[in-house]
Specification:
single chain, mainly beta, seven-stranded mixed β-sheet, globular
């Protein structure tokens, strides 16, 4: 019954913007880490951005830090990713994940719940 549902993916040109959203249901995520991961074709899944808990400081992979902004709703049950200045190398399936105090916030192996993924394609 616990679910994470992503939305907001699509196709944009280089330099464009997208806003991804992920809403959790079935339990409270207020004290959970909620983060975004992505996986490009032929590449390993990587951490993109997230929070250790609602109200906590955001963390970003260096390649997106100046372009993406991650945010949490006040109730902690949703996470968003505003992506600006998109590049072709940002093309990937983006997944949201939630976990109860993951030992390593940047490692997907410590997260408990995952969304279905949303495709982001950036054309040149």
């Amino acid at each position: 019954q616990v679910q994470l549902v992503e939305s907001g993916g699509g196709v944009v040109q280089t330099g464009g913007s997208l806003r991804l959203s992920c809403t959790g249901s079935g339990r409270s995520f207020r004290n959970f880490a909620m983060s975004w991961f992505r996986q490009a074709p032929g590449k390993e899944r990587e951490f993109v951005a997230g929070h250790k808990w609602a109200g906590g400081s955001p963390y970003y992979v260096p390649t997106v830090k100046d372009r993406f902004t991650v945010s949490r709703d006040n109730d902690g049950n949703a996470v968003h990713l505003q992506m600006n200045s998109l590049r072709p190398e940002d093309t990937a399936i983006y997944y949201c994940a939630a976990g109860d105090r993951p030992y390593e916030y940047y490692s997907g192996r410590y997260y408990d719940y995952w969304g279905q993924g949303t495709q982001v394609t950036v054309s040149s």
